[in-house]
Amino acid sequence: MTNSSPETPIRILLVDDHAIVRAGLRLLIDTQPGLRVVGEVSTGRDALALAERETPDIVLLDLDLGPENGLDLLPRLLALGLGIRVIVLTGVRDQQLHQRAVGLGALGIVNKENAQEVILSAIARVHSGEAFLDPKLTASLLAQLTGNGQQKQVDPEAAKKIGRAHV
User: Fold this and answer.
1) CA–CA separation, 129 vs 58, rounded Å?
2) Phi/psi at 64 (nearest 5 deg)?
3) In contact, 8 and 39? CB cutoff 8 Å
4) pLDDT tens-digit profile of 46-60?
5) pTM of the complete model
6) Distance (Å, rounded) from C-alpha 109 to C-alpha 135?
7) DSSP string covering 141-167, please?
8) How far is it, in rounded angstroms, from Cα 14 to Cα 26?
9) Which of the listed ranges 6-15, 71-80, 90-99, 132-141 does the model predict with the highest average pLDDT?
10) Host H or E run for residue 48
């Protein structure tokens, strides 16, 4: 499943404000060959300190960290210059927030409702240099980049004239 060997596992940092979520992720990840959780934290400050100390390959980051916002933490993690790749693992369904996360440097977006195989696949693919995005988000981002997602401003007076011309 991964590009790592057991001698050099993919090192993962878990950042989520829910202890039970972190425990479940740790159990899932640590039972996989080639994957290892190097730490788990619930706050941005602790995430930055642990990232500097442990230099993870992947950070699984929740967008909702209680009083904190994962979007604020994301660029700060990347600014450490450690080659960290961030996957947003979230229950938040807001596509605009997902787009902002990608714009800030996240290489993966995974909804917490997905099966465990999805998060394992995301870890492997992002570690190998690919992006891992929900198909709806990918379509939305492509539309935005190509300009097809822009809403056109309609002149109400011109619309009235066009409407009368077709009657």
Assistant:
1) 11
2) -105, 105
3) no
4) 999 999 999 999 999
5) 0.80
6) 10
7) HHHHHHTTTPPPP--HHHHHHHHHHT-
8) 8
9) 71-80
10) helix 44-54
Higher pLDDT, 155 or 29: 29
DSSP 56-88: -SEEEE-SEETTEEHHHHHHHHHTT-S--EEEE
Q: Residue 111 has which token pair?
A: 């909804």
* pLDDT at residue 38, as a whole number: 97
Residue 40: CA atoms inside 13 Å, Cβ hemisphere, count? 17
User: Measured between alpha carbons, how far is residue 151 from residues 33, 99, 139, 148, 154 in Å?
Assistant: 47, 17, 16, 8, 9
Q: What is the DSSP string of 89-130?
A: EES---HHHHHHHHHTT-SEEEETTS-HHHHHHHHHHHHTT-
